[in-house]
Amino acid sequence: DFPNYARLSDPSPAELSAVQAQLADGEALLDFVVAQKSSFVLVVTNRGLTAQPLNATSDSLSDDISALRSAFVPKLGRLGEFSLKSSFQLYEQLLAPVEEALVGVNHLVVAPSGDLESFPLALLVTSEPAGGYGTAAWLIRRMAVTQVPSPRAFLELRVARSSRNAAARPFFGVANPAFSGGATSGKALGALGR
């Protein structure tokens, strides 16, 4: 009865040719297959597919990502130091094996899985850090990074984007609401509604 919902909720794999057809020049879709004993990275461009084994397992990635994410957990009112060295080591594990396939890519669409879903790859450092945060070779300085739940979701989003109708006129909205009343006051909700 609802074919669009059925297609969106279908966990079937996305066809390689369909994904390639949705990728423009300079774009690549990166997908990870991470398991307990071995892992792989897949790079899809509109020209081909590259698959490389990774020197990582689900347990090792979990430990590495947890260590990097700990910098974002406040302790005694302060954030910890983000390890540029650990970020570079993670880059070497995840993306260095496919650097050749990423030549000419300026937009990386990532479909992470497992613990990789909780760490934005834009925070990876692409070369040995020699200074501080300002001089680090962040991946985001080299290419835009977009995260999608899966290759199937990427495909559905691209198809939906290309099939939607454009607005008749552009929209530009500016607001400066005046909020009044306390947080527990019924007047506050009324003012918010107005």
Strand order of the largest sheet: 3-2-1-4-5
Based on secondary structure, the structural category is alpha/beta
Number of strands: 5
Shape: globular
Query: What order do the SSEs take from the amino end to the carboxyl end, as H and E?
Result: HHEEEHHEHEHH
Oligomer state of the chains in this structure: single chain
Overview of the structural elements:
It is a single chain. This protein has helices at 3-9, 16-22, 58-69, 84-94, 139-142, 151-163, 186-193; strands at 27-34, 39-44, 49-54, 107-111, 144-147. The chain has a five-stranded mixed β-sheet. Helix 5 links the parallel strand 4 (107-111) and strand 5. Helices cover 32% and strands 15% of the residues. The protein has 194 residues and is an alpha/beta fold. The chain is built from seven helices and five strands. The model has no long low-confidence stretch (mean pLDDT 86).
Secondary-structure blueprint:
Elements: H1 3-9, H2 16-22, E1 27-34, E2 39-44, E3 49-54, H3 58-69, H4 84-94, E4 107-111, H5 139-142, E5 144-147, H6 151-163, H7 186-193
Parallel strand pairs: 1-4, 4-5
Antiparallel strand pairs: 1-2, 2-3
Give a short summary of the structure.
This protein has 194 residues and is an alpha/beta fold. 32% of the residues lie in helices and 15% in strands.
